[in-house]
Amino acid sequence: MNVTIGLDKDMAKAMEIVQDYFSDKKVKINNKQYGSRYSIDINIESKKSTAKDFYNNVSKAILDMILLIYAKDIINKNLYLFWNDLKVSEKKEIGNISKAILLDRKNFLEEKKHVYMKTKDYIMNNSTILIDGFIRFRLEELNFLVNLAIEKGIDEFTVEKEYREFIKILQYFVESQEPKYDLVHLVFEDMDYKLLDGEGNAIDKDFFSEIITEIDNTNISKDDILISTLIVIAPKKIVLHLDEKFKDEDVVKVITNVFQEGVYVCQGCEKCNGEIRIKRGK
Hints:
This protein has 282 residues and is an alpha/beta fold.
């Protein structure tokens, strides 16, 4: 059994993919270059492998080549052709996000299966496949798959953009406040937290509740109150005391992003039982 794969870019990556699927030394793999084009010959005696396994692995290798070598260019092309309302810088960022989404093996399983099956059907009836030509003339399913990734990428970009704008607004509020404390210790414990001044005295964390009672507080959480309190008191320095279960909490990320260089993470003290801490946020 023999299949020849032709392509017009990144022979090194293509060979790496093929070798991942055919590590058996009994499989003969040869590559050649013809001007700006490349070919990879995969050959194995039929008695040493079933046809099913052979074509399955070749099809998987070709799918990986399509996604790892060709998909980014198709994403960029489609972004520039069909999403004219986006800025160039936004298209670049969305392109990177979309590629990561597309390459995540957990995403678009059915759509990738369609591409795989169409590829397999082709190579079982043809001993040579030119990947760039196959994509251009026979693989309309890939465009659908790419556009799904782009749409999901735009959604993630929009959420991230709104988050960055939210952080900027909070930073503006902090900068407009006169610092009421030089140092504040923020201790996370169970499902609650404590605010302490530099001397270890408790800071009234509920004084902000007077403002909250004047508005609809059905959607106000403890995290909202904490962030609002820190913005109002605008400490010059915040030391976080928390264990591993808190390190990825959204409220911790917001605090480290808003106060940036003013945030430090305790490496272990009596307030936090000597646990190993996350690194200083930025």
